[in-house]
Amino acid sequence: MNSPLLHKLVRFSLPNVPMVHCSPVSRGLSMARLLREPLRSTARLFAPMSGVSASLEAPWRQYVLASLVFAATTLLSFYMQEWVGYQAIALIYLLSVVLLALFINRGATFFGTVLTAAGWNFFFAPPAFAFNISDTYDNMMLLTYFVVTLTVGQLTTRLRAHRNAEMQAKLLVESERLGRTLLNSVSHEFRTPIAAITSAANSLHSTSVLTREQQNLVQEIESASARLNRVVQSLLSAARIQSGQIRPKLDWCDIADLVRVTLRGIKDQIYSHRVRIFIPKDLPLVKADFVLTEQALANLVLNGVVHTSPGTSLEITARIENGFLALAVADDGPGLPPDQLERIFDPFQRGGTTKPGGVGLGLAIVKGFIEVQGGRVIAANRDPGAVFTIYLNATDSPHLPHENL
């Protein structure tokens, strides 16, 4: 949208930022993809460190390498035998196997051990060019060489595997740290300009000198700012969950009051749907963080609005089930793909029928906010639609006497 009104609004809100004409971004380029790109860059930084091992992933290449190293070591040993003697050749073979174990797997290491032991026996141990060793000391040395070489090779291979595992763990930790930093930075940097744009749009909307077309543009700016603000809030919540900064403030909550407050806060976003509430009057109080549970419930309701057609119904039910409060949000939509039920709460997870505009963090935030309170949330299908159920501990809930007014 390149209207003069929008340019004036942005210039008024961000006077120190140069104006740039940007082409529309493809819908396929989602926020989740933008956030994943730095993590992929981090992975590419560590890629050269494992380049040699990656080129030897095929087992046959490892066996070929073991054979080539054996051949090269044998030729070198023929040249050095005159100065060091045939017994020292065994140490040269031992060194070659240890170096091989840094790059190949256990099977290829065992193959190299057998080759070098047989080579030292056939080419260097007297009598030469025969597998018959006449000296008892040489027989003991061959047996000891085989055991020591095999043991050292296996230990070296295990050490390499442990080193690779540590490198992968370090890469994962660094990627998660970078992701949290990016989420936190981007979210905080967006809040000030969003607030300025929203304030300016509200000021323009309250004036009476705008034409109908200009009023429509201002309303579009307000709507887009509200959506962007929800995305920023989701990013901040995700960053707080991943960094472990959330400390729930548990207190006794009235679930009926929590549902009313939640629906009142999102009434402008759910006007296209009918919301039916089924909560028993004798439902006991539940110990929970009111703010976190309200946000989790709001995300579930908005998720139902996004994935169902206007005019359909949403149901919010609450009941006590096996010592737990079961707070459920059900819809009449197409339901969830069975293969996504286990990972529907993963960050940046989006269904195949999801409308453009989200980042796939809503359900992940629900899971984080509920689990930090000691609860859990599950997703299931029903006929028709899907149902998301929050479970919170209610074993210690006080039973207040019912008052007749």
Helix/strand class: alpha+beta
Shape: elongated
Q: Which stretches are poorly predicted, pLDDT < 50 over at least 5 residues?
A: 1-50
Separate helix tally: 11
**Average pLDDT figure:** 77
Distance between the termini: 57 Å
Number of β-strand runs:
7
- The helix/strand order is HHHHHHHHEHEEHEEHEE
- Main sheet: which strands, in order across? 2-4-5-7-6
Based on CA atoms alone, the radius of gyration comes out at: 34 Å
What's the main sheet like?
5 strands, mixed
Proportion in β-strands: 5-15%
Helix percent reads 55-70%
Total domains: 2
Care to describe what's here?
- The chain is an alpha+beta fold and 405 residues long.
- It has two domains: 1-245, no CATH class; 251-393, Heat Shock Protein 90.
- 57% of the residues lie in helices and 10% in strands.
- The chain contains eleven helices and seven strands.
- The protein has helices at 4-13, 31-46, 51-55, 59-84, 86-100, 106-124, 136-206, 212-243, 255-265, 290-306, 362-371, and strands at residues 251-253, 274-278, 286-288, 313-321, 324-331, 376-381, 386-393.
- Strands 2-4-5-7-6 form a five-stranded mixed beta sheet. It has a two-stranded antiparallel sheet with strand order 1-3.
- Helix 2 runs antiparallel to helix 7, helix 7 (136-206) packs antiparallel against helix 8 and helix 9 (255-265) crosses helix 10 (290-306).
- The longest helix is centred in the middle third of the chain and has 71 residues, at 136-206.
- Mean pLDDT is 77; it is low at 1-50.
